[in-house]
Design brief:
Layout (H helix, E strand, L loop, with lengths): L1 H10 L4 H11 L5 E6 L5 E14 L2 E13 L6 H7 L1
Antiparallel strand pairs: 1-2, 2-3
């Protein structure tokens, strides 16, 4: 989790422990997490898919959506690859 918190802190300027606390409060066990590593084994991207509910004409609908996308190197295409693959 600290590796994910580190890459999240590159996009959202909060201390690592605050990133971890936020993830513990807001992510659920059934969320999906995708990590992307470069050829040197360095984490370069993180994406999570969350489950949520929306209301449409008073009907509650369960959905899945992207929770967040974080990359080590902005403009590298790593985030786009995570989303598309």
């Amino acid at each position: 989790m600290s590796e994910i918190a580190l890459i999240k802190s590159l996009s959202w300027n909060y201390p690592i422990q605050e990133q971890i606390d936020w993830m513990n409060r807001n992510l659920n066990a059934n969320d999906l997490h995708f990590l992307s590593y470069n050829d040197d084994g360095i984490l370069v991207g993180y994406l999570n898919i969350i489950n949520s509910n929306i209301r449409n004409n008073n009907e509650i609908i369960e959905i899945s959506g992207i929770g967040n996308v974080c990359v080590k190197f902005k403009g590298s295409g790593d985030g786009k690859r995570l989303i598309l693959e």
